[in-house]
């Protein structure tokens, strides 16, 4: 009787109050709700999340990562639910790039193993032997490793067409590497008359031994490969010449194009092939059409298209590269890339070329902001859409540092220019680095960034990267004077501190290297110089020590790795390994310096001395600005740029100043609490006008 009544009481309690029962449509919705509540700080207040109790002691980012990876089978549906809840961007922002990479990698189809690749390589070499089509010596053993580096998809061993496509993929790769002799390299069309009867017979005999493949299909593909031109490798079967595209890719590309036009502005254009972009695009696709949820072709296409976007955006003439792909001239398009990128993007370019107009339309949508030339008069109106809107936030630090006066004092970057021209030049150079978008040598600088620098885009000719580079005419004395002037400000603001200089060797592009000096914290690097010869190091260190002593009254102790020891006087040199705490600080400083250098790599002028000084100045001003961001004041340079600065928006040019409307980011409440959305009054390079801020809802 007691048991009956207890059971009845439980049933009545459940039926009578929502606080006793919570329902979720699926496991995916349950995990998505937990992730959203975890971000809002209320997850552990709710009893129904006891299943995640093991994550309670973990930091937020690690708890999110673990929860999502533990449910990776439902990840597409989880992200789609987060998108519908409006929490997707907050979740992506909270996760580390490595975690985002893990999530996306889990959605990709399995890649070919070395053992599997060996099978197809062996048969491909045998087939080329049978056809006597070697153009040079047979490939070395490490050629297969180069093939695996482009991450070819694993074959479906239950599908003869898939196995044939895998073998064809290896043949294309070898052809692209120059191993395969072609019958006809001049024609863009197949001409079977140029293939001898003997080769036809050899091909038939060779294919007869491969009866575990779809040999009928493979025969036509091999003939297409050896007759008209070399076709670089692809992880998807290439459609026969003249055949129509399958309905599946056409429908998929049409849906991708639709969601890109609706949401494309939310993609990270600074890192086109980032896992966050892939996850966004796939999630938008599923939200638009759930039919793609279990289609591996969707994730493969997204991976390859984003990779193609990444490389096309870095070519000197992106529109020319697209035109070559439209002509199916993949080899010509690959020649537009630097050598290291050709192997990595070959498959993506081939897919774009094979799929034709739909894929090209998608790529054009993706790279539009990267290759925009701003030639239309309408872009010079009173309102400018810009990818550099967030850079305006850092102008507060430029004012706090009295940058105009520092440039005047040092005659930097050129003594020939006026004070206003100097600050405009530096601001545009800093903005390009802070903004982090790829730039082309002859590209026009974003009009929004030019407007923030006080360059009137309505009246003056728009400035190009070449114009900006021509304004930089500094010598080493001017550079040192400017760095010392900025160091004086950092010391006065209590940013740089201590009687210690941490010395680092910093590799730069094109085999150049630099010497960089950090303060006691090893997290701020006010002094740097490009080293042209080893004998320059000792003189540079001596000059820096004297400058530091002059500004602080203390001759600094020098902390450096073994490689710099021969260039440092024994009386002031400190070996980091002799002091565990000092060694930890020194090595942590190196990691932070390399991370900052990596995140500020875009927007360089191609002038090593100037680029180094601009980078160190960008870091110093960013740290000066970030110190008032409450608990985020000591955050790394990549973190501050990602979560506060790098964002698009709109700039309105008004008689009383500029109105900067920023796209929202999850941590904007911190900006407001720090007073960083308040007006900037009497900005010198804007003729005393103000800058106002607002965050779009």
For the sheet with most strands, the description reads: 5 strands, mixed
DSSP strand tally: 9
Helical content stands at: 40-55%
Task: Indicate the structural class.
Answer: alpha/beta
Strand adjacency order, main sheet: 4-3-2-5-6
As a percent range, the share of strand residues is 5-15%
**Which outline best applies?**
globular
Rounded mean pLDDT is: 82
The CA-CA distance between the termini, in Å, is: 59 Å
Could you list the spans in which at least 5 consecutive residues all have pLDDT below 50?
Answer: 184-193, 228-246, 369-381
User: Nearest-angstrom radius of gyration?
Assistant: 30 Å
**Helix run count:** 29
Which helices and strands, and how do they pair?
Layout: H1 2-16, H2 27-39, H3 60-70, H4 75-85, H5 88-94, H6 97-107, H7 114-131, H8 142-148, H9 160-176, H10 197-208, H11 215-226, H12 247-263, H13 275-288, H14 296-312, H15 318-326, H16 330-334, H17 339-355, H18 357-371, E1 383-386, H19 395-400, H20 403-410, H21 419-435, H22 447-452, H23 465-470, H24 476-492, E2 500-507, E3 513-518, E4 527-531, H25 536-552, E5 557-559, E6 573-574, H26 580-599, H27 608-626, H28 637-645, E7 649-654, E8 657-662, H29 668-673, E9 690-695
Please outline what is shown here:
52% of the residues lie in helices and 7% in strands. The protein has 697 residues and is an alpha/beta fold.
Explain what the structure shows.
With about 700 residues, the protein is an alpha/beta fold. Helix content is about 50%, strand content about 5%. The chain contains 29 helices and nine strands. The chain has helices at about 1-15, 25-40, 60-70, 75-85, 90-95, 95-105, 115-130, 140-150, 160-175, 195-210, 215-225, 245-265, 275-290, 295-310, 320-325, 330-335, 340-355, 355-370, 395-400, 405-410, 420-435, 445-450, 465-470, 475-490, 535-550, 580-600, 610-625, 635-645, 670-675, and strands at about 385, 500-505, 515-520, 525-530, 555-560, 575, 650-655, 655-660, 690-695. The strands form two sheets. The protein has a five-stranded mixed beta sheet with strand order 4-3-2-5-6, sandwiched between helices. A four-stranded mixed beta sheet has the order 1-7-8-9. Helix 9 runs parallel beside helix 11 and helix 20 (about 405-410) runs antiparallel to helix 24. The longest helix has 20 residues, at about 580-600. Residues about 185-195, about 230-245 and about 370-380 have low confidence and may be disordered.
């Amino acid at each position: 009787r007691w048991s009956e009544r207890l059971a009845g009481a439980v049933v009545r309690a459940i039926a009578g109050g929502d606080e006793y029962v919570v329902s979720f449509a699926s496991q995916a919705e349950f995990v998505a709700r937990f992730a959203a509540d975890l971000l809002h700080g209320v997850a552990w207040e709710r009893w129904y999340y006891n299943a995640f109790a093991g994550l309670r002691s973990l930091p937020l980012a690690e708890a999110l990562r673990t929860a999502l990876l533990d449910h990776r089978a439902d990840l597409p549906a989880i992200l789609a639910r987060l998108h519908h809840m409006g929490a997707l961007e907050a979740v992506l922002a909270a996760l580390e790039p490595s975690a985002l990479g893990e999530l996306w990698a889990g959605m990709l189809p399995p890649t070919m193993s070395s053992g599997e690749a060996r099978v197809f390589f062996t048969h491909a070499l045998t087939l080329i032997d049978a056809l006597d089509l070697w153009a040079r010596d047979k490939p070395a053993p490490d050629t297969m490793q180069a093939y695996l580096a482009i991450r070819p998809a694993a074959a479906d061993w239950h599908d003869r067409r898939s196995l044939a496509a895998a073998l064809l993929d290896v043949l294309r790769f070898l052809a692209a590497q120059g191993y395969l002799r072609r019958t006809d390299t001049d024609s863009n069309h197949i001409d079977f008359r140029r293939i001898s009867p003997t080769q036809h017979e050899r091909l038939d005999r060779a294919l007869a031994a491969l009866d575990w493949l779809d040999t009928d299909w493979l025969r036509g593909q091999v003939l297409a490969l050896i007759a008209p031109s070399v076709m670089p490798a692809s992880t998807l079967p290439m459609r026969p010449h003249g055949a129509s595209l399958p309905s599946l890719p056409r429908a998929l590309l049409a849906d991708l194009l639709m969601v890109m036009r609706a949401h494309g502005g939310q993609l990270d254009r600074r890192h086109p092939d980032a896992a966050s972009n892939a996850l966004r695009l796939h999630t938008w696709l599923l939200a638009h059409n759930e039919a793609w949820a279990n289609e591996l072709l969707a994730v493969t296409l997204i991976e390859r298209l984003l990779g193609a976007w990444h490389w096309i955006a870095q070519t000197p003439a992106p529109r020319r590269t697209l035109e070559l792909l439209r002509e199916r001239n993949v080899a010509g398009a690959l020649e537009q890339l630097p050598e290291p990128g050709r192997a990595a993007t070959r498959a993506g370019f081939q897919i774009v070329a094979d799929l034709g107009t739909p894929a090209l339309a998608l790529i054009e949508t993706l790279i539009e902001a990267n290759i925009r030339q701003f030639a239309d008069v309408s872009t010079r109106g009173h309102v400018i859409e810009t990818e550099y809107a967030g850079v305006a936030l850092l102008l507060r630090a430029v004012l706090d540092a009295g940058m105009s006066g520092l440039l005047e004092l040092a005659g930097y970057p050129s003594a020939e220019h006026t004070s206003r021209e100097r600050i405009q030049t530096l601001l545009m150079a800093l903005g390009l680095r802070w903004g982090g978008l790829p730039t082309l040598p002859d590209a026009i600088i974003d009009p929004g960034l030019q407007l923030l620098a006080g360059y009137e885009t309505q009246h003056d000719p728009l400035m190009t990267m070449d114009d900006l580079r021509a304004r930089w005419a500094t010598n080493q004395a001017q550079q040192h004077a400017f760095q010392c002037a900025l160091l004086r400000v950092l010391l006065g603001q209590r940013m740089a501190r201590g009687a210690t200089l941490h010395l680092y060797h910093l590799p730069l592009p094109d085999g150049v290297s630099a010497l960089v000096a950090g303060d006691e914290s090893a997290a701020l690097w006010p002094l740097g110089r490009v080293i042209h010869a080893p004998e320059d190091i000792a003189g540079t260190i001596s000059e820096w020590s004297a400058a530091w002593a002059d500004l602080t009254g203390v001759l600094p102790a020098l902390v450096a790795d073994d490689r710099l020891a021969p260039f440092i006087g024994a009386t002031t040199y400190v070996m980091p390994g002799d002091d565990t705490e000092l060694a930890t600080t020194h090595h942590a400083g190196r990691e932070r310096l390399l991370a900052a250098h990596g995140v500020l790599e875009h927007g360089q002028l191609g002038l090593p001395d100037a680029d180094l000084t601009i980078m160190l100045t960008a870091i110093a001003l960013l740290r000066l600005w970030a110190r008032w961001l409450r608990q985020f004041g000591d955050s790394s340079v990549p973190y501050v740029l990602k979560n506060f600065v790098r964002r698009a928006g709109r700039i309105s040019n008004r008689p009383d100043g500029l109105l900067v409307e920023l796209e929202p980011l999850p941590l904007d409440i911190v900006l407001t609490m720090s007073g960083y959305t308040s007006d900037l009054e009497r900005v010198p390079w804007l003729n005393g006008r103000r800058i106002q801020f607002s965050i779009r809802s």
